[in-house]
Amino acid sequence: MSNPIYNNEGLRVVKEDYCCEHWEPDDGVLVPMRECWCCKWSNFRNDGKNTEVENLSVCNYEGNVETVISS
Prior knowledge:
Elements: E1 13-15, E2 56-58, H1 66-69
């Protein structure tokens, strides 16, 4: 298993098909597949800034923040 990658704010960078133990379905999904794309903690569609690599986002769950993980 590879080491997690974090952005400048310490948020974990995730792909659409990643899924962790903190996964919770987004309220708006029709089919709650266990993927970050359908997780309420990801922001694939929220900010509209994801133009460089469309299948990457960050996890907003406080338990996945770099400072929490490395403590």
